[in-house]
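Example for tutorial group B:
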């Protein structure tokens, strides 16, 4: 099954799905009170104060839940706010607000239309009120909202989902996943991932999302800000982390991606490799994204990862050469495979065998030379995967050398 997965990924196709169960799954809140009730107690007082300041500055604003987070509307959306693990965010639905308050916001982290703050550095009530009042003035200049037809509403909702990509999209992405959660897939998950006490996925938590559906959602969130992608990586839920890596994978395959955006992805993936704790997360990040970034740069990091004590880092090292192979550069694949021939992990053996097979499709003579030198001492899993495209006689020859 894993071989089928990797082959399909190499062909840029998706023909794979996994399913799981989120033991902590809860329905989305329908009121702001319900939202605040579920917020970390350390964050709650700060958000309560924020809520009060918003109401005082815009007493006629409608309070509701939109995109699964508290929202205030007055002739259109004014602001949103939300809590995360290590910070809270106020999202102003306007491109002019943050520049207007640049001096006052100097001590806060901002991104796009979002202001981040913490209990140690909360937003002053005076500043909140000034921001809200400016938003009210902006919205008052807009023409009154007309009642939309069902068709127009659907179109606007679709466009809104695209535009909101720069606003708290980590929360939205999780909400989108929740819509496709399925308890019926629990048994399949248990058979697919090693979630037993001694398994490599023993501590992993799952929602129960088909991977094909996750990929579809990830593609829609390709413009998610890098700080929001990191929020997804911090999740305890496997599919949420897979979504973070899939977003980077999908976006990195876009020919219009900028070098700066690709570097953001690579830096985040490597910096937060502690959150890459399963083979599928490695594969999503390495079959294109890491390799495409490193292709014209020194490969030193891959050789360091190949010597790591962490099996996922070693798997990252060999699979990152997949992009190099596509470009006809095979040296690093064979050199890193050389470092991994004595590896003790089956999942590293398989990945190494796949990359050798892929490299052999480009240069069979070079693969044969590698096998002639090492076949007698290669792990059988590695050797079997490397030989998959050989005829029966050749396979038997190398397998019998062990």
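The residue assignment follows.
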């Amino acid at each position: 099954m894993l071989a089928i997965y990797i082959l399909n990924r190499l062909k840029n196709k998706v023909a794979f799905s996994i399913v799981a169960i989120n033991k902590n799954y809860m329905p989305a809140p329908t009121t702001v009170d319900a939202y605040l009730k579920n917020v970390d107690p350390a964050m709650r007082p700060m958000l309560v104060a924020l809520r009060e300041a918003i109401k005082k500055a815009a007493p006629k604003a409608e309070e509701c839940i939109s995109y699964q987070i508290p929202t205030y509307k007055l002739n259109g959306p004014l602001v949103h706010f939300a809590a995360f693990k290590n910070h809270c965010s106020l999202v102003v639905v306007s491109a002019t607000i943050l520049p207007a308050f640049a001096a006052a916001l100097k001590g806060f982290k901002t991104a796009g239309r979002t202001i981040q703050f913490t209990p140690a550095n909360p937003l002053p009530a005076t500043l909140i009120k000034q921001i809200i009042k400016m938003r009210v003035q902006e919205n008052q200049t807009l023409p009154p909202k007309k009642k939309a037809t069902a068709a127009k509403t659907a179109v606007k909702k679709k466009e809104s989902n695209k535009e909101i990509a720069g606003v708290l999209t980590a929360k939205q992405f999780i909400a989108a996943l929740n819509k496709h959660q399925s308890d019926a897939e629990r048994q399949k998950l248990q058979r697919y991932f090693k979630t037993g006490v001694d398994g490599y996925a023993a501590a992993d938590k799952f929602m129960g999302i088909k991977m094909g559906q996750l990929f579809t959602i990830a593609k829609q969130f390709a413009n998610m800000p890098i700080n929001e992608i990191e929020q997804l990586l911090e999740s305890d839920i496997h599919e949420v982390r897979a979504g973070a890596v899939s977003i980077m994978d999908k976006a990195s395959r876009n020919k219009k991606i900028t070098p700066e955006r690709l570097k953001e992805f690579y830096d985040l993936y490597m910096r937060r490799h502690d959150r890459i704790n399963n083979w599928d997360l490695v594969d999503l990040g390495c079959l294109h994204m890491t390799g495409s970034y490193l292709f014209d740069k020194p490969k030193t990091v891959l050789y360091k990862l190949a010597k790591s004590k962490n099996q996922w880092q070693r798997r990252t090292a060999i699979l990152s050469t997949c992009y190099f192979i596509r470009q006809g550069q095979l040296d690093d694949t064979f050199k890193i495979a050389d470092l991994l021939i004595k590896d003790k992990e089956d999942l590293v053996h398989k990945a190494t065998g796949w990359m050798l097979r892929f490299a052999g499709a480009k240069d069979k003579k070079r693969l044969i030379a590698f096998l002639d030198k090492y076949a007698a001492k290669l792990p059988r899993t590695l050797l079997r995967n490397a030989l998959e495209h050989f005829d029966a006689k050749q396979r038997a020859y190398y397998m019998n050398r062990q």
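The chain has 22 helices and six strands. Compare this with the pattern of hydrophobic and polar residues in the output above.
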